[in-house]
Write a structure and sequence with these properties.
heterodimer; A: alpha/beta; seven-stranded mixed sheet; four-stranded antiparallel sheet; 13 helices; B: alpha+beta; 52% helix; elongated
């Protein structure tokens, strides 16, 4: 592969693939004609430009349906991305089914586009139960079941968490929601293509996916809307020309859809091999770090997690300070030092992690284009910088002197 | 977030990192912040008989701006009289390091650390003076006095 030549380590190194991924050159190639020659509006029914654009869109729909195990391309509603898909699923279903009930269930560690959609519904009179997760970040299906009432219309649980990579038992939850006649929405953005996902086998009724997490372009996503057993209906959230069977108005992003399609094809053909390679790199990074440093803990579940995800807390070192020390490496942190609230990651907090360890966390997201050489470079750099920062950390000094940091009365500021 | 060159300089080459013996009579220690908030600063000063800060040391758990603020603080207070050092304000630190609004709390913490170290030193000194003024009290705790001299 063009991007994988050993001996040519280039900085900066991108290791933040949960945030977004680079577009695969093969995806770019597939998209290019749709900007200049096949540029028509897929809704133009009167000429060849429109017809060829529409053909590309319908072809893309079928591939994306296949990617998530849907039975028909008619069940795919294109959106601008996953945030819009999550908004449409939750608000659209709540509005349509409000005569049936006003209760929704989700988890405490969902993406903000799910949580904030739920919060808006609460202000409008809906009731939402936020189910807690365990210390490993996994939701217990029994807790979902226990939260269901005769007013419950929708359950929304993500396939995989964006911070700690935890994979949720969607199939088990789907059995419950189907039996209880409640709709199941799954935000499959982080997991689709990286862990098995099948809307039919898992009884999922609504599912959000996006292209830019699987080496496709930004600005194109989709919502799967089940068409039979049960037929799911939504109230559209965007008014206009009635595109996407009335579910989402707006001219379709044809080039984006073609890119999304190509990205799905590549994931379907190369995913299994790729995920094994990525997991080996992830494990190598983890092992090298923990072999050289003490007081490093893994956040999330060791087994039920995305192959590329490594979320570690480096005790006695603050995450943002550490990121600054490894500024040639793009990662992210659960430290919220940059936010005005000074609140660390709500996901790590919901998992019961101590706040100081949340501030000390780094998330590595290994992806298709990372190499072993990069992993080794990052591990070595990180080890030396953590040691350096611990040398200037008063907390590490206290730890070495046997002082329990929790025994000190700290003044909050 | 982009850091200013001065923050980067102090972060990469922190001045006066280290520890002074907190038991010493001429040393004042300030420990401020909280691990749960993501910032802890320990700033120490060693003060001579004339009330001049002869040495200052810090250790900080925090982001780059917190490390830079405490590094700059030690640099500035070294050689200053206690009351001069006590007048150093967070806004001077924030201005020098070009801290964005979201990082102002780092400079506030550095100011608190200086004040806290000075207070600790003064308390120790007052306690010592009280002891020397009352010989019977001094006699009651001879070991502590001799250990700190």
């Amino acid at each position: 592969m063009a991007y994988d030549h050993p001996g040519s380590l280039r900085l900066p190194i991108y290791m933040d693939n949960h945030s977004t991924t680079p577009v695969d050159p093969r995806v770019v190639e597939a998209m290019l004609p749709y900007f200049t020659s096949t540029f028509g509006n897929a809704a133009s029914r009167t000429h060849a430009f429109g017809w060829s654009a529409e053909a590309a869109v319908e072809d893309g729909r079928e591939t994306i349906a296949k990617f998530i195990g849907a039975s028909s391309g008619k069940e795919i509603v294109f959106t601008s991305g996953a945030t819009e898909a999550n908004n449409l699923a939750i608000k659209g279903a709540a509005e349509y089914y409000q005569a049936k009930g006003n209760h929704l269930i989700t988890t405490a560690i969902e993406h903000k586009s799910v949580l904030d959609s739920c919060k808006r519904l609460e202000r409008q009179g809906f009731e939402v139960t936020y189910v807690e997760v365990g210390k490993n970040g996994v939701v217990d299906p029994a807790k979902i079941e226990a939260a269901i009432t005769d007013k419950t219309i929708l359950v929304s649980v993500m396939l995989a968490n964006n911070e700690v990579g935890t994979i949720q038992p969607i199939g088990e939850i789907g059995k419950i929601t189907r039996a209880r006649n409640v709709l199941l929405h799954c935000d499959a953005v982080q997991g689709a293509g990286k862990t098995p996902f099948d809307v039919e086998a898992m009884n999922v009724d609504l599912a959000s996916v996006t292209a830019h997490k699987i080496y496709g372009p930004k600005g194109i996503g989709a919502l799967y809307v089940r068409r039979s057993r049960p037929r799911v209906r939504l109230v559209s959230q965007m008014d206009g020309g009635g595109h996407e069977r009335g579910n989402r108005s707006g001219t379709l992003n044809v080039a984006g859809i073609v890119g999304f399609q190509r990205a799905c094809e590549l994931m379907m053909s190369e995913g299994p091999t790729e995920n094994a390679r990525i997991r080996a790199l992830r494990d190598r990074l983890h092992q090298r770090i923990t072999a050289a440093l003490d007081q490093v803990t893994l956040n999330g579940d060791p087994e039920r997690r995305l192959s590329g995800n490594l979320n570690l807390s480096f005790a006695f070192v603050e995450g943002e300070g550490l990121m600054m020390a490894i500024k040639d490496v793009a990662v992210s942190s659960g430290s919220a030092c940059t936010s005005a609230s000074l609140e660390p990651s709500y996901v790590l907090k919901a998992m019961g992690l101590d706040e100081d360890l949340a501030h000390s966390s780094l998330r590595f997201g290994i992806g298709r284009f990372n190499t072993q050489e990069e992993v080794d470079y990052v591990a070595d750099l990180l080890i030396s910088k953590v040691k350096k920062l611990r040398d200037i950390s008063p907390l590490y000094e206290m730890h070495q002197q046997g002082i329990d940091i929790k025994s000190i009365q700290w003044a909050a500021h | 977030m982009a850091y200013s060159d001065k923050v980067i300089d102090h972060y990469e080459n922190p001045r006066n990192v280290g520890s002074l013996d907190p038991q010493r009579e001429d040393v004042g220690t300030g420990l401020v912040g909280a691990p749960a908030c993501g910032d802890v600063m320990r700033l120490q000063i060693r003060v001579n008989e004339e009330g001049v800060i002869e040495d200052a040391r810090f250790k900080t758990f925090g982001c780059g701006s917190a490390i830079a603020s405490s590094s700059l603080a030690t640099e500035w207070i070294k050689g200053k009289k206690l009351d001069e050092a006590g007048q150093l304000s967070n806004s001077q630190i924030a201005t020098e390091l070009n801290l964005p609004p979201v990082k102002i709390h780092c400079s506030v913490l550095a100011e608190d650390a200086i004040k806290s170290a000075i207070l600790d030193y003064k308390k120790k000194r007052e306690a010592r003076q009280a002891l020397s003024a009352a010989p019977s009290a001094a006699a009651a705790k001879p070991s502590e006095l001799s250990a700190s001299k």
